[in-house]
Amino acid sequence: SARMKEKYTRFLLSFFLALALYCACAVNASADDQVDAEALHVAVDGSGAYLFSIHGVLSEGDEYIAGDNVLYRITTVHNGNAVAERISEEPMPDISWLDVGEAQAVFASDDIIQTNAKSNADKKLIAMYVTHSDESYVPSDGSQSINGQGGIYDVAREFRDALQKQGVDVILDESTHLPHDSGAYRRSRQTAERLLQKQPDAIIDIHRDGIPDESEYARTINGEEASRVRLLVGRSNQNSSVNREFAKQLKAVADKQYPGLVKDIFIGKGNYNQDLAPHAILLEFGTHTISKERVLNSTDMMAQVVSTTLYGPQTGSAASEKSRSGQDTAVQSSKGVSGGVVFLVLSVIAGVIIFLLAQTGGGKAMKTKFTRNVSELTGGLFGKKSEDSEP
User: Fold this and answer.
1) How many CB atoms lie within 10 A of CB 87?
2) Which helix (H) or strand (E) holds 330?
3) What are the beta bridge partners of residue 219?
4) Tens digit of pLDDT for each residue in 284-303?
5) How far is CA 287 from each of CA 130, 137, 178, 283, rounded to the nearest angstrom?
6) For residues 221 and 260, is the Cβ–Cβ distance under 8 A?
């Protein structure tokens, strides 16, 4: 009937309209979900003021600890860019032990960072690797990406050497994990697992950022042209809270020793293989638009920060060496004095023997006179006492 046809037509129109709206929503959702993970993304605060940029994905729930230790949490993400709300000032660890120069070490227990004294005899070991092997510095390397070992390996080697000067043993695995794609962390995970078999105190993934503005990293620190360092923590793993506390400890020590060295801390949705260990951290040394020489200047500073955080300040190591050297000199001097006294005594005895030979001609008479003289010289301690000596 006509009425049935009309109802059927309305049904079809409603169905296709609903289908069209669904497809439109799906397309928009797909566009947001497929944001380029390697593109530049920006986060602003609620007023639209710039907070930070990152060469990677931003997700709702990500957190950001700014250079002034204010904590922000991302609430909205659209086309990769984000809006973050100010939460509060992030409580930072107590590092008053730096002022008194007490040797401290950081140890993780569940989700708590504890500071304890660590013996200098204990082995100090840190492991390092490079997930994004191609990362390079345009002003120095000529490209931001080199197929093979990029300029980031020069930074890793310099950082290793600087840590070794602090008395820390370092294992740097120079394996490459190309290509620079979403599978890089999966490939570098095998390297991290291999390094963790050595039971290091910390494991560090060395990177450089990809934001274009070099001024966000370029700084003059202690009168030296240097680069800042960004710390990254993955929140999608069981060690996230401990990794976060470790990152905060590093920043707190850096803020004390080298103000401005640590740029900020980003706590992102990924895990960055940090689920493998409590003291796992990702360090971004500068960005691709900054000179590598600036970054290399920062490695000595960052090495001291890492060493101090894990093992305490180098309190008097040189002084101890000097003290030990002084003790050795004193011992040698004492041995010299002792040797001189013995030589003097032997010389006197030899002189006495020669004199007695000249006086007595040797034999029993010399022996009797010799023992009497020795007794007199030593107060009766050695030799034969004379009959007229006092009891």
Assistant:
1) 13
2) helix 317-360
3) 226
4) 999 999 999 999 999 999 99
5) 15, 7, 19, 11
6) yes
